[in-house]
Design goal:
Blueprint: H1 29-36, E1 45-57, E2 61-73, E3 79-90, E4 96-110, E5 115-124, E6 147-156, E7 161-170, E8 176-192, E9 195-206, E10 220-229, E11 234-245, E12 248-260, E13 264-273, E14 278-279, E15 282-283, E16 288-298, E17 302-313, E18 325-337, E19 340-349, E20 355-365, E21 370-380, E22 383-397, E23 400-413, E24 416-430, E25 435-447, E26 452-468, E27 471-487, E28 494-514, E29 525-534, E30 553-556, E31 560-563, E32 569-576, E33 578-584, E34 593-594, E35 599-604, E36 609-618
Parallel strand pairs: 29-36
Antiparallel strand pairs: 1-2, 1-28, 2-3, 3-4, 4-5, 5-6, 6-7, 7-8, 8-9, 9-10, 10-11, 11-12, 12-13, 13-16, 14-15, 16-17, 17-18, 18-19, 19-20, 20-21, 21-22, 22-23, 23-24, 24-25, 25-26, 26-27, 27-28, 29-32, 30-31, 30-33, 33-35, 34-36
């Protein structure tokens, strides 16, 4: 950094303060401290972190893990990163599995004035989605499988890129699956006028020496191509995917995606897919024909949307058509005042899995905090269910919250009445600024009306402590207890069972940094906070009774991986300002939960903190 000094005065970083013009409202407190103490922040930016910990669960075993990472930002030679990790899992049956890996990578490496390069040697997690290259949200997701080997990419500011990957195929957790080798070549080109093309070739080869037969996972190659226009209010993208497999005839699929920007937002697609279509190790939905459309509108006071999907499927041999399915959904939200709102949603599905679902909710903010009343109804052939849910903040203050919740469910299935009740309390408490607590207590009772009664409770408590400069520790304890009573209606005998499970998690982390962080070649930097949680009421927002997902893995731009803590959060600092891709990897998501939208493309603002939220829905 160039040293500032007044005319006629020798430059002395220790004696001369930073110019007042630099200390404006856009600088954070940390940046001001760096400007006022240039000697402490001299040299290239370096960041290092060490993390170790594990979990132990009753009946599931014990896992120990560790990770080390070192980042080094150079001037003119890119941003370098070294990382390594290990994991050891001991199961109750005395089986022990071990995994380890690492990588050396560089990003933002200037090649010319227009092009940058990136390369990874080792565990490469390049999950770039070719189908989203033009910014159009595609009907089908085409991730690039991670490999252990060599990955390289060239890209420019216009969005054009060239990628090459070769090595042995990995799972989403960067563990060798020992089944196949992979090679990939991809190209995204901006041809001017808002037009873009994308193409890629994946080839997977089955490794016979690892056992099994070629029929179980035959060699196959996949070719993808698209042509897209992003100019004007209407954007569209035409996609074609072709797969060749050793033991079957070539297969082809195609789909057209259309989007419209403006006050009325529209998105739609039409698609035709043949069976056995693959992209890497990802199998697309088989033997489908159909289309989808969605219209949305929002203002400062209300918002609404309507969508419809029509799908016609065939059997495995594409010889007989299965019943067509129409899936229709509508939602609306109206703000009565800045503190009150009504929302409603309805869904109708015909054909396979036909049924109806509706939801009506009212929420308000009172003296205690936020309160919500929600009524849900679901109807399917032979069953119907109604559920009333209530929640109320009991206490809200700086860094402290406490919420009570409860629900009552009535239902009929196969002419048998069923009921369920649930109640609980959840909260978080910032004790000292370096020490915080969070927890919840939940109890429930279910009666299926056929002599089977189940009741239980779940308690969870977590703590986060920063006990020394750079050192932090996170502890979480979860206890579940279930008591089941089964009564045979034809006999006076009854059977009771009790199940209990305890999970303990401990993470110890040290991180430090030195030097001044420089802006990326094409802009400054910002932070992101990732939140992965179980969205039990399907409103897309995290309520206090909804728990986070521990150890969820989120991949950033196919290069950097972040792992959530016991609360489901993780903060990633120093991302270059601009659009980034965040992918929630499915391996660590507990069943039956799934992410309706596993990949998000969001803009990181300069010196800002962007929220990246992944609400999970039960399958």
């Amino acid at each position: 950094m160039a040293t500032w000094s007044a005319p006629g005065v020798s430059a002395s970083p220790a004696a001369v303060p930073a110019p007042a013009a630099y200390q404006d409202q856009y600088l954070t407190q940390e940046e001001l401290q760096v400007l006022d103490a240039p000697q402490a922040a001299s040299g290239p930016y370096r960041h290092w972190s060490l993390e170790t910990g594990g979990w132990r669960q009753t009946g599931a075993g014990t896992e120990l893990r560790g990770r080390a990472q070192y980042d080094w930002q150079t001037s003119g030679w890119g941003d370098w990163q070294m990382q390594g990790w290990w994991r050891r899992l001991s199961q109750p049956n005395q089986q022990v599995s071990r995994d380890a890996g690492g990588a050396l990578s560089v990003a933002h490496l200037p090649v010319t004035s227009e092009w940058q390069g990136a390369m990874t040697l080792g565990d490469a997690l390049w999950w770039q989605d070719l189908s989203a290259a033009s910014g159009v949200v595609s009907r089908f997701y085409l991730p690039i499988q991670s490999v252990r080997g060599l990955s390289a990419r060239l890209q420019n500011q216009q969005g054009s890129s060239f990628s090459v990957i070769t090595g042995q195929a990995l799972g989403a957790l960067a563990t060798l699956d020992g089944t196949s080798s992979a090679s990939y070549r991809g190209r995204i080109a901006s041809v001017g006028g808002g037009w873009k093309t994308a193409s890629g070739i994946w080839h997977l080869q089955w490794l016979q020496e690892h056992g099994g037969t070629a029929d179980e996972a035959p060699d196959h190659s996949s070719l993808y191509g698209s042509w897209a226009s992003g100019a004007g209010p209407w954007n569209w993208q035409a996609n074609v995917l072709h797969t060749r497999t050793v033991h079957s005839s070539p297969r082809t699929g195609g789909w057209l995606d259309v989007q419209r920007k403006g006050d009325y937002r529209f998105s739609g697609s039409v698609f035709v897919l043949q069976p056995d279509l693959h992209w890497g190790d990802t199998a697309l939905s088989q033997n489908l024909q159909g289309g989808s459309a969605r219209v949305e509108r929002s203002t400062r006071q209300w918002a609404w949307g309507v969508s419809a999907d029509w799908v016609k499927a065939y059997d495995a041999h594409a010889t007989a058509a299965l019943p067509s399915t129409l899936y229709q959904q509508a939602y609306g939200r109206y703000w009565v005042s800045p503190t009150q709102q009504w929302s409603a949603m309805e869904m109708v599905r015909t054909g396979s899995g036909k049924g109806q679902q509706a939801q009506l909710a009212w929420s308000t903010r009172n003296d205690l905090g936020h309160a919500q009343v929600q009524l849900d109804g679901q109807w399917q052939p032979g069953s119907r269910t109604r559920r009333l849910s209530l929640s109320q903040d009991l206490y809200q203050a700086q860094g402290r919250s406490l919420r009570a919740l409860g629900s009552r469910t009535w239902g009929v299935s196969q002419q048998v009445r069923q009921t369920a009740s649930e109640w609980g309390i959840a909260g978080s408490w910032d004790m000292t600024g370096q020490w915080s607590l969070n927890g919840q207590l939940r109890a429930y009772r279910q009666n299926n009306g056929a002599g089977n009664v189940q009741r239980g409770w779940e308690a969870q408590i977590g703590s986060s402590l920063q006990f020394a400069p750079g050192w932090s520790m996170q502890v979480a304890l979860n206890r579940q207890n279930t008591h089941s009573l089964f009564t045979d209606l034809t006999s006076p005998l009854s059977q009771t069972t009790t199940q209990a499970s305890t999970t303990a998690t401990l993470t110890l982390r040290y991180e430090g940094s030195a030097g001044r962080q420089q802006s990326a070649p094409w802009g400054g930097t910002g932070d992101v906070t990732i939140d992965v949680f179980r969205d039990e009421n399907h409103n897309g927002e995290r309520d206090l009774n909804e728990t986070g997902v521990l150890n969820a893995l989120v991949l950033i731009d196919g290069r950097q991986m972040a792992r959530t803590d016991a609360t489901g959060h993780v903060t990633v600092r120093g991302l270059s300002a601009g659009v980034h891709e965040f992918t929630l990897l499915p391996d660590q998501i507990p069943l039956p939960w799934t992410a309706p939208q596993p990949t998000l493309r969001l803009r990181v603002e300069l010196r800002g903190n962007t929220a990246v939220t992944f609400p999970l829905s039960a399958m």
